[in-house]
C-alpha cells in the first residue's frame, strides 16, 4: 500500500493510423497523492492530452494503450470494463477540457446539465439536484445562480462556461480532477479567477488535481510538483520550487529561458533552436538531441533513462546520469 | 483631448502614423426598416501617434477591439469615423494610385500563419507574390530577392519549392514574415503573430522580429494577448478596454508606475513563472467579466469592474490625459498620481 491516489506506470499509448504507428506516449510513469496538485507541462504534441485521456480510458480507435498500468486506489483502470469505468469517470475522477463549449450540450440549460450529472451518480430527486446545482454555481462564482441555472451555454462567456464545467466536474465531489489546459482559451483576467477557484476547491475538499498546461506561469502559481514532457516521455520531474530554481534537463532549461517574464528587466530571450517534433519523427537516441546545445555522441545512439536522484528529482539526460553518481 | 495629443506630438517630431478620433461601430441588428438598432463600438474615438522606428504594443482582453483597430488602420475595413495619416497623407482620402502605393509600405502579419497562406502555392510563389503584384522584380532579380528574403527569416533556400502544410507553425510564421517584408515596408501591423506558437518557437519569432526591425528600420504595431511577450518586444504599450485606449506609456513606466486600475488588474493577473513569488505577488482580481458591448455605460467604460469607482465615474467619462512624463491615462482617480 502507498499513500498515492493514482499511479501511472510505464504507460505506452499508440495510434495505429493508415500511415503507420504514432507512438504518442512512451513509458510515462508518475503518481499523485491525495490533495496534491501536480502539473504536466510541455509543448504541443508532447503527449499531455493523450496521457490524460489514457487515465480516463477515453482513448478510442485507432488509439490503444499498448502497455502499462493505471492504478486508482490500487485498482488497475486499464483492466476495467466500460461499465465499471463509467462508475469512476465523472464521479471519482472528473475532467475539464480546454474548450468548454464543445463539452456542453447546446440544447439544454446549464442547470439541467449539472442536475443530470448529479443524478447520474447520486441518488437524489430532481428538486434536490436542482438545489445542489444552484449551490455549486454560486460556489464557482456565478453571480445570480438561480437565474443562470436556466441559461443556455451559448449565452455565456468563455469564462462562465468554464465555471459551469468546473461546477459539473465538482458535482460528485471527485477525488481526482484532471484539467487539460482549462484556461488556455481564456483571457488572463478570467484565467486568474478560474485558477484561484480550482486552488481553493482543492484545499477545501482535498481534491487531487492533475493540471495540464504549456504555460510555465500557470505551473509556477498552481502546482506542488511538476512533470515535464517532451516527445511522449517524461524528461524531468521535481517539486515546483526546485524545478524552477534548479532545472536540470536542457529542455526544461530551454523552456524557462524562452518564456518572457514581466517581472524581469529586458534580457534577450533565449529560444530553443529547431522545431517541436511530432511522434513519428522522433530520432533514435535522446528525443531532444536535435535541439539540445549539449548533445554528445552518446545522445545520438542510446536514449537515456529517467533516473531518480536522492534530492527528489528525476531527469532523463546523459548529462545528469553520470554526474549524479559523483554528486550524491 | 486634442491638447493631450499635442503634448505627445511635441515629443514625436515626424510621426509615421497618426490616428485621430478613429471609431469603428459594427451594426449587429437592424429594425424593421433596416435601420441600425444595436451596434458594437469595437473601436471608439482612438487617438494614436506612432514614431518612426518604434514598436507600439497593444494589449487588452479578447474583444476589446485590437484587431479591428489594426484592420482599420490598414483600411482592410472602413472606419465609421475619424482620420488616419500615414507620413502626413490622409489615408481615408487617397486616390487609388496613392492607396496602392501605401499598400506597399504598410504590411500585416497574422496570428494563424496557416490560414493566411494559400495552401496550393509553393513558398517561393507565396513570397514572390507581392513582388510580382507590385511589379517590383521579375526574372533573375525576383529569384535573388526571394532567396534573400528566405535567408533573412531563417529559412533554407532548399525549402522554396515546398507547400505551407509541409512546415511547422513557426516556419509558417517565418514565411508570413518574409512575405510581409518583401516590399520593404515602413510599418508592419502584427496581429498576435506568436499566440498560436509553442513557447520555444515564440521566442524564435519574437527575436526574429526584433532583429528585422533593427536591420530594416521597421516600425511595428504589435497586438498581443500575452502581456510578457508584448512587453518584451515593445517600446511603448497601449492598453485597450472596450474599444478605447485607457492607458498608454513607455513600457517601463506602464509596468512600474501603472496608472489605470484596469491595467493594474490585467498585469496582476499574468501568472509569473517563478513559484517563489507565488505568495508575495499582490492580487488585484478583476472579479466580473466584460459587460455587454452593445450597452456600454455612459460614464467610465471600466465602471462595472473597477474597485475604485465612484458616482462621478458612473456619470462622467474620463478623458485620456498625459502627466508630465507623457504617461497617458483615462481615469478620474489615476494610481501613482
Ligand atoms: N464583422 C464584425 N461584425 C460585428 N461585430 C464585430 C465584427 N468584427 C468584430 N466585431 C466585434 O468587435 C469587437 C472587437 O473585436 P476585435 O476582433 O477587434 O477584438 P480583439 O481585441 O482583436 O479580440 P481578440 O483578442 O479576441 O482577437 C468584438 O466585440 C467583436 O465581437
Ligand atoms: N486520435 C489520434 N490519432 C492520431 N494521432 C493522435 C491522436 N491523438 C493524438 N495524436 C498524436 O499524439 C501526439 C500527442 O498528442 P497530445 O497528447 O494531444 O499532445 P499535447 O501534449 O499537445 O496534449 C500528437 O503528435 C498527436 O498528433
Ligand atoms: S541526453 Fe544528450 S541530447 Fe538529450 S538532453 Fe541530455 S545532453 Fe541533450
Ligand atoms: S474613472 Fe473611476 S471607474 Fe473608471 S477606472 Fe478610474 S476610478 Fe475606475
Ligand atoms: Mg493537448
Ligand atoms: Mg484579434
UniProtKB/TrEMBL annotation, chain A:
Belongs to the ABC transporter superfamily. It is found in: Cell membrane. InterPro entries: AAA+_ATPase, ABC_Ni/Peptide_Import, ABC_transporter-like_ATP-bd, ABC_transporter-like_CS, Oligopep_ABC_C, P-loop_NTPase. It comes from the Bacteria. This is ABC transporter ATP-binding protein. One of its GO terms (cellular component) is plasma membrane. GO terms for molecular function: ATP binding; ATP hydrolysis activity. SUPFAM superfamilies: P-loop containing nucleoside triphosphate hydrolases. It is a peripheral membrane protein. It comes from Oceanobacillus jordanicus. GO terms for biological process: peptide transport. Residues 6-256 form the ABC transporter domain. Signal peptide: none annotated. Its main location: membrane. Keywords: ATP-binding, Cell membrane, Membrane, Nucleotide-binding, Transport.
UniProtKB/TrEMBL annotation, chain B:
Keywords: ATP-binding, Nucleotide-binding, Transport. Residues 17-267 form the ABC transporter domain. InterPro entries: AAA+_ATPase (IPR003593), ABC_transp_ATP-bind (IPR050319), ABC_transporter-like_ATP-bd (IPR003439), ABC_transporter-like_CS (IPR017871), Oligopep_ABC_C (IPR013563), P-loop_NTPase (IPR027417). It comes from Oceanobacillus jordanicus. GO terms for molecular function: ATP binding; ATP hydrolysis activity. This is ATP-binding cassette domain-containing protein. The keyword Glycoprotein does not apply. Pfam families: ABC_tran (PF00005), oligo_HPY (PF08352). One of its GO terms (biological process) is transmembrane transport. Belongs to the ABC transporter superfamily.
Amino acid at each position: 500500500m502507498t499513500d498515492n491516489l493514482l499511479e501511472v506506470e510505464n504507460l505506452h499509448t499508440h495510434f495505429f493510423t493508415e500511415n503507420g504507428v504514432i507512438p504518442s506516449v512512451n513509458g510515462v510513469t508518475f503518481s499523485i497523492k491525495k490533495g496534491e496538485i501536480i502539473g504536466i507541462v510541455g509543448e504541443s504534441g508532447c503527449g499531455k492530452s493523450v496521457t490524460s485521456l489514457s487515465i480516463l480510458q477515453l482513448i478510442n480507435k485507432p488509439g490503444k494503450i499498448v502497455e502499462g498500468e493505471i492504478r486508482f486506489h490500487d485498482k488497475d483502470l486499464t483492466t476495467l470494463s466500460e461499465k465499471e469505468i463509467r462508475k469512476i469517470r465523472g464521479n471519482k475522477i472528473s475532467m475539464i477540457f480546454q474548450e468548454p463549449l464543445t463539452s456542453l450540450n447546446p440544447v439544454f440549460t446549464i442547470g439541467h446539465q449539472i442536475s443530470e450529472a448529479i443524478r447520474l451518480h447520486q441518488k437524489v430527486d430532481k428538486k434536490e439536484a436542482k438545489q445542489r446545482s444552484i449551490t455549486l454555481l454560486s460556489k464557482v462564482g456565478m453571480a445570480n445562480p438561480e437565474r443562470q441555472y436556466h441559461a443556455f451555454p451559448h449565452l455565456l462567456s468563455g469564462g462562465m462556461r468554464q465555471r459551469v464545467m468546473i461546477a459539473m466536474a465538482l458535482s460528485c465531489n471527485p477525488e481526482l480532477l484532471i484539467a487539460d489546459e482549462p484556461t488556455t482559451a481564456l483571457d488572463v483576467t478570467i484565467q486568474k479567477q478560474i485558477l484561484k477557484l480550482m486552488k481553493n476547491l482543492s484545499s477545501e475538499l482535498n481534491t487531487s488535481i492533475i493540471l495540464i498546461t504549456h504555460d510555465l506561469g500557470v505551473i509556477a502559481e498552481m502546482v506542488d510538483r511538476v512533470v515535464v514532457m517532451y516527445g511522449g516521455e517524461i524528461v524531468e520531474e521535481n517539486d515546483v520550487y526546485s524545478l524552477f530554481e534548479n532545472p536540470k534537463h536542457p529542455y526544461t532549461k530551454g523552456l524557462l529561458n524562452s518564456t518572457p517574464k514581466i517581472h524581469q528587466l529586458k534580457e534577450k530571450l533565449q529560444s530553443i533552436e529547431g522545431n517541436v517534433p511530432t511522434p513519428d519523427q522522433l530520432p533514435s537516441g535522446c528525443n531532444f538531441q536535435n535541439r539540445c546545445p549539449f548533445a554528445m555522441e552518446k545522445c545520438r545512439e542510446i536514449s537515456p533513462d529517467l533516473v531518480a536522484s536522492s534530492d527528489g528529482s528525476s531527469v532523463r539526460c546523459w548529462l545528469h546520469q553520470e554526474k549524479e553518481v559523483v554528486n550524491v | 483631448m486634442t491638447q493631450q495629443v499635442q503634448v505627445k506630438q511635441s515629443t514625436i517630431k515626424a510621426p509615421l502614423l497618426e490616428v485621430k478620433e478613429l471609431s469603428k461601430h459594427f451594426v449587429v441588428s437592424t429594425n424593421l426598416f433596416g435601420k441600425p438598432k444595436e451596434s458594437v463600438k469595437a473601436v471608439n474615438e482612438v487617438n494614436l501617434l506612432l514614431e518612426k522606428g518604434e514598436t507600439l504594443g497593444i494589449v487588452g482582453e479578447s474583444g476589446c477591439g485590437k484587431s479591428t483597430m489594426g484592420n482599420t488602420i490598414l483600411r482592410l475595413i472602413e472606419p465609421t469615423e475619424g482620420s488616419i495619416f500615414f507620413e502626413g497623407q490622409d489615408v481615408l482620402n487617397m486616390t487609388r494610385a496613392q492607396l496602392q502605393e501605401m499598400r506597399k509600405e504598410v504590411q500585416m502579419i497574422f496570428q494563424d500563419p496557416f490560414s493566411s497562406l494559400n495552401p496550393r502555392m509553393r513558398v517561393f510563389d507565396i513570397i514572390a507574390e507581392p513582388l510580382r503584384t507590385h511589379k517590383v522584380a521579375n526574372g533573375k532579380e525576383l529569384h535573388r530577392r526571394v532567396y534573400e528574403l528566405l535567408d533573412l527569416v531563417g529559412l533554407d533556400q532548399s525549402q522554396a519549392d515546398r507547400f505551407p502544410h509541409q512546415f511547422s507553425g513557426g516556419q509558417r510564421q517565418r514565411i508570413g514574415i518574409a512575405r510581409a517584408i518583401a516590399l520593404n515596408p515602413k510599418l508592419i501591423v502584427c496581429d498576435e503573430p506568436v499566440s498560436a506558437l509553442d513557447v520555444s518557437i515564440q521566442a524564435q519569432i519574437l527575436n526574429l522580429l526584433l532583429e528585422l526591425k533593427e536591420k530594416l528600420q521597421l516600425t511595428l504595431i504589435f497586438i498581443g494577448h500575452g502581456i510578457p511577450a508584448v512587453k518584451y518586444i515593445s517600446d511603448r504599450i497601449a492598453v485597450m478596454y472596450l474599444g478605447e485606449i485607457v492607458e498608454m506609456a513607455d513600457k517601463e513606466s506602464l509596468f512600474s508606475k501603472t496608472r489605470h486600475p484596469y491595467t493594474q488588474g490585467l498585469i496582476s493577473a499574468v501568472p509569473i513563472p517563478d513559484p517563489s513569488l507565488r505568495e508575495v505577488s499582490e492580487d488585484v482580481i478583476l472579479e466580473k467579466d466584460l459587460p455587454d458591448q452593445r450597452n456600454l455605460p455612459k460614464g467610465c467604460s471600466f465602471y462595472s469592474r473597477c474597485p475604485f469607482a465612484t458616482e462621478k465615474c458612473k456619470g462622467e467619462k474620463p478623458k485620456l490625459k498625459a502627466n508630465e512624463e507623457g504617461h497617458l491615462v483615462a481615469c478620474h482617480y489615476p494610481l501613482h498620481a
